[in-house]
Structure to design on (697 residues):
């Protein structure tokens, strides 16, 4: 029997691997055929070739250090040479052109009315931070996060992790900035604050930060801004995973592992993170265990269901201020807090040509134990529904309903009891160890329309109903002018609010059940520009904020001596600049600057913030260095006493890719040994070093 010559000699697939932006050949890129042991390394001109192939269909995969992997399905015909070229996109060039937080549906950046910053997966991976908040504090202009030591934020008195955006966010123990995970609000049911020690970087795909009010879409606590932590999902077919370990200064141990599977409509991602350190000061030990599981199933092209759950267990120790009046409180790790929290969501999403929406059920529970005897259980659960409609060309209508129930119980809750024969005595409150609940319901809608191809108008209104204060109306208006193909100007007027929480309404002597919501108007002008074939991205924003009804402690002239009242007001204005320059496929620069003017001094709100970072890929090495300059940061504001800080911090990380499975790296923080404080009396650590390795499979 005779065989055709082509069946003897076999067929060929050949092509070139190049950079998508410059066209430069990518020597040493890896090319493989899925399901076989065949692999090639691209030559000097980026060329590769597979010979002696049988006719059929092949899945070609291409990867290279510092670039997003890609692939194609290639059909090889008998007797032919098949051409298959690949253009890889550098990870440091990745542009987040599609956002979800600013409109609740995937929308191109230029059509999102709210000023939004994005920290993408490549930036997260290149950072040495295992908690996402310090990275956001550096990368997002106008945002600042307090710290008190090397690792761990803690809760209650002496804690850090307070977040401000444009000087708004920190009001006692309460946050005016909303933190979300995949659109789910993260809020302690009694105190109203988020959970900074829970937000580990390795679980995240990217982070979107709204700088300014997001209350139209997200309701309470979004007065100053919104941080949406978008979790990872498995993006590779089949099974994959990685393990990571680090060790360094202050006997710090960090370990993480994750695994995922994707196939036949099923998507699973699971992770575990461990973080332990003795801390940079005596009595500042910290230990954190975090577990996360996300499962999803895509029924068809239009419907998918996702369930995710997490568990966090951390113990933090407060070393106390260096000038503590009674150091014995903090000795022998005496000022501790033990926090356990669970979180779960179930989301059904729909995707059609003219409709895009979701129904989300969520539940969050926490158990907090503190060294001073405080013992609380809190819950936060609810339902979110949103539907976006594209009924006519260049139009988007959004309709949403939120219902949220939050509260809890805690002990001891003590109140003064008048004593006719002596000073008042403290007795248990009627609310001591009793469940207290607050219900909030929000209904909102917005309309967005593009006219003439260059003008986009957006207007929306929210109605919010609260258990105690009744209702609040939240409007928002925006105009976007597309001035050129690569530039636009945005005008925005938006209102934000924060509802009083359980603590402010009912717990402890200052409580006042008649409180009204805090509110703020934000007015801003923004300009965005892309230059040099989009290698240079520029953004500038000018804003003016006017807030009222801030909940503050006011002297009563009787006992108790102070009471929560809606008396505070403020006016802020400022400037924010952001720039990213992708100079070469292997070299990127990013920088941001913010200026903030406040009518009255506030903590955690620097007057000037400047960040400059460099990411350089050379051979198998990746070097990431950055510098942050802070000035006019108030750390103490009491009466006429003012204490402020100015400092410069330099950090760096060097990564070496041993092979496609193994990376080793070393990172250093505060390389110049700057001497500074962020929380008053808590000296930040000097130079610290971590070394580690990541194994992928």
């Amino acid at each position: 029997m005779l065989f055709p010559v082509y069946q003897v000699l076999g067929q060929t697939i050949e092509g070139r691997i190049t950079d998508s932006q410059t066209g430069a050949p990518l020597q040493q890129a890896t090319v493989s055929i899925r399901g076989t042991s065949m692999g090639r390394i691209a030559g000097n001109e980026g060329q590769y070739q597979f010979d002696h192939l049988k006719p059929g269909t092949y899945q070609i995969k291409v990867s290279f250090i510092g670039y997003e992997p890609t692939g194609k399905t290639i059909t090889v015909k008998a007797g032919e040479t098949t051409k298959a070229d690949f253009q890889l996109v550098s990870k440091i060039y990745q542009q987040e052109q599609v956002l979800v937080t600013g409109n609740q549906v995937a929308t191109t950046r230029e059509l999102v009315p709210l000023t939004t910053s994005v920290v993408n997966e490549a930036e997260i991976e290149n950072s040495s931070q295992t908690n996402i908040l310090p990275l956001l504090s550096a990368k997002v202009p106008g945002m600042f996060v307090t710290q008190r030591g090397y690792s761990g934020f803690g809760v209650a008195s002496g804690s850090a992790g307070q977040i401000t955006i444009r000087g708004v966010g920190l009001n006692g123990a309460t946050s005016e900035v909303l933190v979300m995970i995949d659109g789910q609000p993260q809020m302690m049911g009694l105190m109203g604050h988020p959970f900074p020690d829970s937000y580990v970087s390795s679980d995240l795909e990217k982070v979107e930060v709204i700088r300014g009010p997001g209350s139209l879409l997200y309701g309470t606590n979004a007065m100053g801004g919104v941080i949406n932590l978008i979790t990872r999902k498995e993006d590779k077919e089949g099974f994959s995973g990685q393990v990571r370990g680090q060790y360094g200064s202050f006997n710090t141990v960090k370990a993480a592992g994750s695994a995922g599977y994707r196939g036949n409509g099923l998507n699973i991602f699971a992770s575990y993170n461990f973080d332990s350190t003795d801390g940079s000061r005596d009595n500042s030990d910290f230990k954190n265990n975090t577990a996360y599981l996300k499962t999803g199933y895509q029924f068809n092209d239009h419907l998918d269901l996702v369930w995710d759950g997490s568990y966090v267990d951390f113990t933090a120790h407060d070393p106390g201020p260096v000038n503590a009046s009674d150091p014995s409180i903090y000795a022998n790790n005496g000022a501790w807090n033990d926090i356990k929290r669970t979180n779960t969501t179930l989301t059904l999403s729909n995707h059609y040509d003219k409709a895009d929406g979701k129904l989300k059920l969520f539940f969050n529970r926490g158990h907090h134990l503190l060294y001073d005897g405080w013992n609380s259980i809190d819950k936060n659960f609810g339902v979110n529904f949103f539907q976006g409609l594209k009924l006519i060309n260049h139009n988007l209508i959004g309709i949403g309903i939120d219902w949220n129930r939050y509260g809890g119980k805690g002990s001891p809750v003590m109140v003064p009891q008048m004593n006719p024969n002596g000073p008042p005595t403290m007795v248990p409150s009627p609310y001591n160890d009793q469940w207290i609940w607050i219900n909030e319901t929000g209904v909102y809608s917005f309309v967005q329309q593009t006219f003439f191809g260059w003008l986009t108008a957006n207007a929306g209104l929210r109605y919010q109903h609260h258990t105690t204060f009744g209702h609040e109306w939240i409007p928002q208006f925006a105009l976007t002018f597309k001035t050129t193909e690569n530039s636009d100007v945005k005008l925005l007027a938006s209102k934000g609010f924060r509802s009083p929480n359980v603590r402010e309404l009912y717990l402890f002597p200052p409580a006042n059940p008649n409180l009204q919501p805090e509110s703020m108007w934000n007015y801003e002008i923004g300009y965005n520009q892309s230059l040099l074939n989009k290698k240079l991205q520029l953004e500038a924003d000018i804003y003016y904020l006017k807030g009222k009804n801030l909940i503050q402690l006011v002297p009563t002239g009787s006992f108790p001596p102070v009471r929560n009242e809606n008396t505070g007001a403020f006016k802020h204005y400022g400037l924010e600049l952001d720039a990213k320059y992708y100079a070469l496929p292997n070299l990127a620069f990013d920088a941001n600057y913010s200026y903030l003017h406040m009518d009255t001094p506030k903590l955690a709100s620097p007057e000037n913030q400047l960040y400059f970072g460099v990411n350089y890929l050379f051979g198998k090495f990746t070097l990431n260095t950055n510098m942050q300059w802070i000035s006019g940061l108030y750390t103490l504001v009491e009466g006429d006493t003012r204490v402020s800080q100015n400092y410069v911090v330099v950090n760096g990380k060097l990564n070496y890719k041993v092979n496609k499975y193994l990376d080793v790296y070393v990172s250093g923080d505060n390389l110049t040994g700057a001497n500074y404080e962020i929380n008053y009396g808590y000296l930040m650590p000097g130079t610290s070093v971590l070394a580690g390795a990541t194994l992928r499979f």
Summary: DSSP finds five helices and 43 strands in the chain. The radius of gyration is 27 Å.
